[in-house]
Design goal:
Immunoglobulin-like; six-stranded mixed sheet; transmembrane; 2 domains; signal; membrane; rod-shaped; transmembrane helix; 190 residues
């Protein structure tokens, strides 16, 4: 009887100590929240225990359609991360690491279509966006320059031959105020 208790304790101890060393547990840490199609992300994971010796695959699965896309068929688990260009359509997904015996899933995350494609040097859409921004800036700059020119022109007109805008002290280098003379008042707005 005591012999059976000792053997049971030895077996229990071996199971508690050795089983975690033989089998591994993988936790996928990323991604969380939302990611965008076309973006480059880093997928991270932790390994607890002995990593598997068989080839491991990393996949992404759509939660609603169950469509599976293989990211890497021969994943190097020791690296603890994998860089991937998101190439799946919009939807709710989860990642899976499968070593042939166990399949570990990440939490759900959302893949969204990017509002603007990621910038590339030869991307026509990005070039167009830059031109639109430059044109928009040019319009603002042009309006500012026209405004400056207009007020300098009005100042020169007041200095050369008089106008409806006169300096409050008679000195043309000072601020201008509208004339209160009724004859000249109407022509300011023409």
């Amino acid at each position: 009887m005591i012999y059976l208790v000792k053997i049971s304790l030895v077996i229990f101890t071996l199971l508690v100590v050795c089983v975690p060393l033989v089998f591994s547990d993988i936790t996928i840490n990323t991604p969380t929240g939302s990611i965008f199609t076309g973006s480059l992300i880093t997928i991270n994971w932790n390994i607890y225990g002995q990593p598997p010796t068989q080839p491991v695959s990393l996949t992404i699965q759509n939660r609603h359609t169950n469509q599976i896309t293989v990211i890497d068929d021969n994943l190097n688990l020791q690296a603890l991360n994998k860089t991937w260009n998101v190439s799946v359509p919009e939807g709710i997904y989860f990642l899976s690491i499968n070593d042939g015996k166990n399949k570990k899933n990440s939490s759900d995350f959302t893949v969204l279509t990017a509002a603007v494609d990621p910038p590339l040097a030869t991307d026509v859409k990005t070039s167009t966006l830059i031109v639109v921004i430059a044109v928009g800036s040019g319009v603002v700059l042009t309006l500012i320059l026209v405004g400056i020119w207009y007020f300098k022109w009005r100042r020169k007109k007041a200095k050369d031959n008089g106008s409806d805008i006169v300096p409050s002290t008679g000195n043309i280098d000072e601020e201008y105020v509208l004339s209160i003379d009724e004859k000249k008042f109407g022509s300011v707005f023409t």
